[in-house]
Amino acid sequence: MNLDLLNTAFNSVRTSELHGRYITNFHIEKCFNLFSKFRISTIGESVEKRPIYSFKFGSGPIKILLWSQMHGNESTSTKALFDCFKLFEAENSLVATILKNCTLLVIPILNPDGAERYTRLNANLIDLNRDAQNLSQPESKVLRAAYNDFRPNYCFNLHGQRTIFSAGETNNVATLSFLSPAENEERTLTQNRKVAMTIISDINDLLQQEIPNAVGRYDDGFNINCVGDTFQNFGVPTILYEAGHYANDYSREIVRRFMFIALLKGLNVIANGISYDKHKAYFKIPENAKCFYDVIIRNAKCKISDNEVVDIAFQFQEVLIDGVVDFIPKVEAISKMNLKFGHKEIDAKGKMVTTTENSELNVGSEIDFVLLNKERISLYS
After folding, report:
1. Ranges for the Peptidase M14 domain (predicted)?
2. d(CA 350, CA 298)
3. CA-CA distance, 2 to 372, in Å (whole number)?
4. CA distance 337 to 326
5. Per-residue pLDDT tens for 37-49?
6. What is the rounded (10 degree) CA torsion for 76, 77, 78, 84?
7. How far apart are CA 111 and CA 95, in angstroms?
8. Residue 198, SS3?
């Protein structure tokens, strides 16, 4: 797939009705009139009786199951899916091979209660991605029923990751990350794992053209309670997609485009036939590390450090207020952090940093700005 053509297509199909981080059933339902009614089904209900929808595209023999917002506050891939849906609906030539050779069953919001609250968990405070064995929640049962009925040949497990992740122990942010999950404790390189690795390698080759050194790979420690590990254990190649951070893109609108590209590339690789000799390239993708904070004030003095020069790290807490996700800076660490990086960095040049009340900064404090030698400094980009 040609990157320029994909970017041009994205600009033409971007679903303007979906924007920002807060995406719920209410938001996607406003887009349903963009698609043929026969594509959309209600396949179950959440704990609080919200409908769980599915979309179906294509008519080919290769069956691919995709689901998003298993964690309710991870919405970037949902936006990208609807952008893909518009391309599918128009039967754009870019996706002709996908639609001819594949049948896609897509669950855009698996956890509508968590989406409504903007939380990771469902209404019963259960992480659905740790419920693959117990199947204690209605949403887990809906996904398993879809899996059993559809009998997919491939699975795409779509998530979003925090801003803390780097691609390796570097100052390269992990804008997108992937994983071919383990299927047993030994993390055996089975055929289906190699297939998933090959698909990821091809996706990475394309992404490197636009976001070099910004793709990460998750640790493949085995947990049979996770959905991806379970489906991999069933013998179905399963790929974890994680939408991460890009400079100043807290609304995840730029990353949305990268996810759009990665989704279509992954589907296209499957539709055109997989080369089984590329799985080794997967291990060249750097493993994710936690090297980032949202903001670091370097070379600062503060009362808690006894006026010694330190670095002050802040992480944004995502809080839903009146239907809008607000980002509230919270002090995470006060120390020298030579191996950590900030998405925004401020050099205090040895000056005193205080709050507006001229009080000391403490780990856990939530503040919007600081005073640097009495000058007000915003912690936002």
Report:
1. 1-267
2. 8
3. 48
4. 27
5. 999 999 999 999 9
6. 120
7. 28
8. helix
Return phi, psi of residue 322, to 5°: 50, 45
> What CA–CA distances, in Å, run from 19 to 78, 168, 351?
10, 30, 40
Q: Torsions phi, psi of 179, nearest 5?
A: -155, 135
Output the pTM of the full model.
Answer: 0.95
| Rounded alpha-carbon distances, angstroms, from residue 114 to 19, 128, 176, 321 | 18, 10, 23, 15
Q: How far apart are CA 217 and CA 181, in angstroms?
A: 11
What is the domain partition of the chain in residue ranges? 3-290, 292-378
Tokens of 180: 């071919």
Tell me the residue type at 268. N
Count CB-CB contacts under 10 A for residue 357.
8
pLDDT in tens, 165-182: 999 999 999 999 999 999
Residue 361 has pLDDT above 90, yes or no: no
For domain 3-290, the question of CATH label 3.40.50.620 is answered with no
Pick the closest to residue 217 from 259, 245, 180, 189 (CA basis): 180
Rounded to an integer, the average pLDDT of 239-245 is: 98
Q: Which amino acid is at 303?
A: K
Q: Could you read off the pLDDT of 56-70 as tens digits, one per residue?
A: 999 999 999 999 999
* Residue 129 near residue 242, CB atoms below 8 Å: no
pLDDT digits (tens, 9 = 90+) for 73-97: 999 999 999 999 999 999 899 999 9
What phi and psi, each to the nearest 5 degrees, are found at residue 288? -60, 145
> What was the pLDDT predicted at 353?
86
The two tokens of residue 182 are: 């383990």
CATH class of the domain defined by 292-378: mainly beta
Question: Which of 177, 157, 158 lies closest to 166 in space, CA to CA?
Answer: 177
Query: Are the C-beta atoms of residues 58 and 103 closer than 8 Å to each other?
Result: yes
